[in-house]
Design a protein that fits this description.
This protein has 1 helix and 5 strands, in the order βββββα. By secondary structure, it is mainly beta. It has one domain. The strands form 2 sheets. It has a 3-stranded antiparallel beta sheet, with no helix packed on it. The longest helix has 7 residues. It starts with 7 loop residues before the first strand and ends in a 9-residue tail after the last helix.
């Protein structure tokens, strides 16, 4: 018994840029993603494009003027 995988495409929730594309055979076509951890205990998170991810992954000790 064989299973088939549908094509998948994920977009950055902030700017809409494609962050992950998987071909119907399961082959990764492109990836430009930056994981952001939401909950340290359970490992829940989401993916942003690298541009938005760099901006969103702000260190805890950084203060804004």
């Amino acid at each position: 018994m064989s299973t088939s995988l549908a094509a998948v495409q994920a977009h950055c929730p902030l700017c809409g840029t494609s962050v992950l594309a998987v071909a119907p055979g399961g082959r990764v076509v492109s990836e430009d993603l930056h994981p952001i951890l939401l909950d340290r205990d359970f490992g829940h998170g989401y993916m942003l494009c690298n541009g938005c991810g760099v901006l969103a992954d702000i260190p805890d000790d950084l203060t804004f003027n």
